[in-house]
Amino acid sequence: MLGILGGMGPLATADFFAKLLEETPATCDEDHIPVLLLSDPRIPRRPPAILDGGESPLPRLRELRDALIGAGATVLAMPCNTAHHWYAPLTADCPVPFLSIVEASCAALPAMAPAGAPVALLATRATLAAQVYDAALAAGGYRPLLPTEAEQGDAVLPAIARVKAGDAAGAAQLLTPVIEALLGRGAGAVLLACTELPIALDAVQSPLRARCVDTSRALAQHCVRFWQTRSR
Questions:
Q1: CA-atom Rg of the chain in angstroms
Q2: How far apart are CA 83 and CA 88, in angstroms?
Q3: Is the predicted pLDDT of residue 221 greater than 90, yes or no?
Q4: For the segment 112-133, what is each residue's pLDDT rounded down to a tens digit?
Q5: Global pTM value
Q6: Closest by Cα among 143, 158, 146 to 109
Q7: CB–CB of 71/36 below 8 Å?
Q8: Which of 29, 31, 52, 90 is deepest in the core (most CB within 10 A)?
């Protein structure tokens, strides 16, 4: 059974689950992956923990991880990019496989951008500050391209907040010119390294999605491939 450690945020968790269903080659109910979905919005906020020394979410993440395993999960996934700052300690003592959104998303890059190309990173300040993606990008031969401070503060962060507040279309209006600008500055692809951001582009059926890695969908595809391999 796949355990989903969610709630960061709730809408992004629901979006991940919907994409998991879309990516599963099913013709009937029984073809789908059995899932335990735990969406707990009370997990301490990740950005303040990374940027301001706030309460660490790691103890609560461990509790929820263990609750999923205790309920029967045999593989885990966590559809939150910033929370992957704690991926190493979460997996060090984990008795079941814990699939990585970073690994899944970077594996999707070669189909979009050649090695050596700059890859734009759109994420929370905390994800960027913690360099959640940097090592995986470097291992694939990619160079991170970051938004300007103005783009980050005036568009990316407000777009994330708008999705959390239920205004995905408004978020897309903020996000679109930033993506266009990053592509214009040479980005071979854009990593939507916050699970709220794909929701914004999906809300307006943006053609820019073809140039972006949807990290939620990449993780969903990774889960499906893993489950199919284990189920043979």
A1: 17
A2: 11
A3: yes
A4: 999 899 999 999 999 999 999 9
A5: 0.96
A6: 143
A7: yes
A8: 90
